[in-house]
Amino acid sequence: MIQQSVAALQKDDKFEGFLLVRSSEQRVGNNGSAYLDLTLADNTSEMNAKVWNTQAPAPGIGTVLKVRALITEYNGRLQMRIEKYRASQTDDEIDYSQLVSSAPEPPENMLAAIYATIDAMTNPVLKPLVKQLVDDAGEPLTYFPAAQRLHHAERSGLLHHMTSMLRVAEAILPCYPFLDGDLVRAGIIVHDLCKLGELKSDTLGNVKDYTQDGVLVGHLVRGVAQVEEAARALGYSHQDEYVLLLEHMIISHHGVPEYGSPRPPMFPEAEMLHWIDVVDARMNEMQGVLRRLKPGVFSEKIWSLERRLYHPRYLSEADAEGMDADGTQDEEDNRPDPDAAYERLL
After folding, report:
1. How much is the pLDDT for 326?
2. Which of 13, 60, 175, 192 could form a disulfide bond with 71, CB atoms 3.0-4.6 angstroms apart?
3. Facing residues of 102 across strands?
4. Measured between alpha carbons, how far is 20 from 23 in angstroms, rounded to an integer?
5. What is the pLDDT of residue 318?
6. Where are the beta strands (DSSP E) in the chain?
């Protein structure tokens, strides 16, 4: 399958090829005409797409479409105007490795790093408990994303999130030597493990929906129950100090009730877990947005961040070659007015 990558597309390009449906919705415009609002992706990036004046049902999330489209621009952001599309067929020669966004490291390497971290622990309660929880996660951990649409929404994204957070922790822990390093590391490894039961993901890392358990209970509450069950199997009481601390870290790592945590972090390691989680999630989201923006352009409002983002004209990027010595662009600055109306995407 040879086709142009989404990340390489420019305004006025014509695209024809296969793309993965990441979001899909039928809408009605201000003029009363129905249209499809899609997010289509390959393994390099994703792009909003419109099918105008159609009553066709929205294609399923995780399905593959063959698309013919013109690349347009709206509010400084590239967009596909789909001229023709169809669902993929069994005889299509589709290379799924070109369509699925994946973590930057092989899952087996990231999983090995997790186990190496556990092996290096010295805490006699946390070490066997965390190992048991990772063992119980099994094969799904190798391909599961960390979210449906937000941070680390990619194949093996959960492992990517865990290992990235561990790297952040190793950089921060020397700054605060009073922290219990094993407790911070244990919280990082187990805090999101129960997303494996919260999301409906295929082996390509595409999440179609939340599970019934994920909606009714959620990974924070289920994570506490899972720790208690594993601790009991290992002969520990749920009242043992480190079992209770780990449970608190899971249930408090979202920080505030508005984001699902019934308790705020109540000791330093729990607070550190919360902020490392926030930093890693937001940096991953921002990196993804900047990949889809041209330098010097503002994004639409990112609802999860409650703000618009700006892609700085970094000197390390290719467009720096077109800058004058004072840092201004040779060509006309085509940034949109920050106060201009924008379309909010789901």
Report:
1. 39
2. 13
3. 155
4. 9
5. 60
6. 14-28, 34-41, 46-51, 64-74, 77-87, 199-201, 207-210
Q: What is the pTM of this model?
A: 0.77
Residue type, 265: P
Whether 65 contacts 19, CB under 8 Å? yes
Backbone φ and ψ of 57, nearest 5°: -65, 150
Enumerate the CATH 2.40.50.140 domain ranges in the chain, comma separated: 6-98
120 vs 189: CA distance, rounded Å: 13
**Grouped pLDDT means (10 residues each) for the chain, 346 residues:** 85 93 89 92 88 91 90 88 92 84 90 97 97 95 88 91 97 97 98 93 83 91 95 89 96 89 95 96 90 83 86 76 42 36 27
Q: Report the half-sphere exposure of 261 (CA within 13 A, side-chain side).
A: 19
Can you tell me which residue has the tokens 């006699």?
A: 124
Specify the residue for token string 């060509």. Answer: 331
Angle at 141 between CA 136 and CA 146, to 5 degrees: 125
Cβ(195)–Cβ(173) below 8 Å: no
Contact call for residues 273 and 191 (beta carbons, < 8 A): yes
Domain 6-98 has CATH 2.40.50.140: yes
Measuring CA to CA, which residue among 198, 229, 235 is closest to residue 213?
198
Angle subtended at Cα 28 by Cα 25 and Cα 31, rounded to the nearest 5 degrees = 155
> How much is the pLDDT for 61?
83
- pLDDT on residue 345: 24
Residue from 195, 167, 153, 165 nearest 287 by CA: 153
Calpha distance 54→269 (Å, rounded): 53
